[in-house]
Amino acid sequence: MPAFSHSKGVLTHHKAAIVNRQALATGSYNWSASAAKSNYENVQVFSGTRERRVVAEFLAEFEAIWPDPERSVTTEEGRARKAAIRDALYETHGVEPR
Q1: Per-residue pLDDT band at 35 (split at 50, 70, 90)
Q2: Is 95 strand, coil or helix?
Q3: If DSSP codes are grouped into helix, strand and coil, which group holds residue 92?
Q4: Does the residue 6 lie in any domain?
Q5: In a domain, 2, yes or no
Q6: Count of domains for the chain
Q7: Can you point out the beta strands (E) in the chain?
Q8: Of 36, 43, 70, 87, which is most buried, counting CB atoms within 10 Å of its CB?
Q9: What is the reported pLDDT for 9?
Q10: What is the extent of the structural domain holding 79?
Q11: Exposure string (b/e) for 9-42, b if CB count within 10 Å is 16 or more?
């Protein structure tokens, strides 16, 4: 079963698509041109009676966080948070920002 945690997450990083509330595609795949053409990505598809619970768990998680204004940020706020995390990693560990 998937496990979700809000305790340490600042930004939503789920990569999933739920189709008609019945099928789920999830994995590392970024839904971008470079992911489709250049990257090594993975995607898992869940559907059907045996996997209904997995789909329901992802759907419940999405519905729990999507409308929550405490967890929602604008694109600019998200970019600023990402930059702050990147800069902190660089300062702490010497990781070169990209």
Answers
A1: confident
A2: coil
A3: helix
A4: no
A5: no
A6: 1
A7: 16-19, 23-27, 43-46
A8: 43
A9: 53
A10: 16-93
A11: eeeeeeebebeeeeebbbeebeeeeeeeeeeeee
Q: Return the closest-CA partner of residue 62 out of 8, 16, 20, 9.
A: 16
98 occurs within a structural domain? no
Angle at 61 between CA 57 and CA 62, to 5 degrees: 120
Mean per-residue pLDDT for 14-24? 89
Per-residue pLDDT band at 87 (split at 50, 70, 90): confident
DSSP 8-state assignment for residue 31: S
User: Rg (Cα) of the chain, in Å, rounded?
Assistant: 16
**Position 10 in a domain:** no
pLDDT at 97: 54
